[in-house]
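Lecture notes, continued. The same structure-token format from the folding unit now serves as the input rather than the output. Read the line below as a description of shape only.
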């Protein structure tokens, strides 16, 4: 368990590794954006900042290394030049197949004695995108100084947000107390969690000798997975090549055109959440059969091929040929 300190308060949060979404406001002054950089999520998370002289260009941000180890260079940060009573921000996420979630962000509140930034905030959430908001934290203190600070909250304490298509969180009532409203900067908003979905590759799963052009990829899964990314490696995982993105129906007919290798692997992953994945347990072989008339894809010419040939003897397969014998 990790303990996070904010403004003299200690908030327990469990350590998480899977990134659902992160909002990075751009690497430099020219790249400022309120559009999120996201990974491994269903749908597109939404970030909205509004009210109280929202800074259209942003202010200087802080660098950050996210839960997946990706480095985000310090650049722009979301900011209000002069916080007012209606200044707030909200995020919307899809929590389908996610649990044990944590939300965190970095902030900086102005400490100029003549123009202090906000000293506290309210933290709310709601499910479904409509109806009343539920209060999580009320008048939670903000540190006002020249440094950046981290806030983190364990959303696992909320039992009603799992497996919902729309979950929203908002920060509002950025209260300045008795002082005038100064600037408030926000950067690196991140939501992490663990996924409850799973996929299990059934074949090819190791040890098979398969003929190119005749390979079925099969699997089973738990949880909601709409589409799967199917990849293969011809060299035991040193290089991965995309086969296709396919609907989650448990079977994909892989039309292998050129693969002669004893070191093949297949990898399946949820297209929207790459943490949900499975790979062949061990390598298998795919070889190109040199026989031109192998009708049943076993790389032997025998009576089985002759039976297939006889079953269509004198039949024509051209539907546009009027002389074709049907």
């Amino acid at each position: 368990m990790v303990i996070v300190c904010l403004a003299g308060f200690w908030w327990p949060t469990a350590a998480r590794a899977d990134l659902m979404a992160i909002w990075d406001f751009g690497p430099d002054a020219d790249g400022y954006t309120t559009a999120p950089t996201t990974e491994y999520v269903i749908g597109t998370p939404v970030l909205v900042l509004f009210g109280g002289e929202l800074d259209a260009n942003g202010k200087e941000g802080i660098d950050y290394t996210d839960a997946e180890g990706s480095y985000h260079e310090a650049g722009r940060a979301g900011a209000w030049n002069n916080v007012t009573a209606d200044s707030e921000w909200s995020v919307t996420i899809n929590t389908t197949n996610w649990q044990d979630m944590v939300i965190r962000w970095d902030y900086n509140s102005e400490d100029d004695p003549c123009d202090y930034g906000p000293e506290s905030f309210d933290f709310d959430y709601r499910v479904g995108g409509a109806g009343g908001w539920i209060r999580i934290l009320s008048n939670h203190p903000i540190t006002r100084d020249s440094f950046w600070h981290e806030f983190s909250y364990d959303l696992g304490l909320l039992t009603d947000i799992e497996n919902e298509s729309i979950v929203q969180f908002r920060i509002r009532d950025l209260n300045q107390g008795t002082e005038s409203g100064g600037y408030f900067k926000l950067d690196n908003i991140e939501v992490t969690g663990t996924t409850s979905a799973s996929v299990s590759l059934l074949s090819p799963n190791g040890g098979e000798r398969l003929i190119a052009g005749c390979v079925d990829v099969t699997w089973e899964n738990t949880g909601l997975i709409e589409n799967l990314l199917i990849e293969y490696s011809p060299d035991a995982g040193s290089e991965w090549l995309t086969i296709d993105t396919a609907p989650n129906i448990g079977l994909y007919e892989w039309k292998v055109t050129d693969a002669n290798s004893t070191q093949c692997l297949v990898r399946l992953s949820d297209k929207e959440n790459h943490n949900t994945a499975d790979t062949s347990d061990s390598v298998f072989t795919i070889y190109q059969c040199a026989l031109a008339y192998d009708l049943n894809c076993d790389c032997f010419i025998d009576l089985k091929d002759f039976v297939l040939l006889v079953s269509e003897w004198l039949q024509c397969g051209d539907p546009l040929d009027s002389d074709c014998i049907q």
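Point for the exam: The chain has two domains: 2-195, 198-300.
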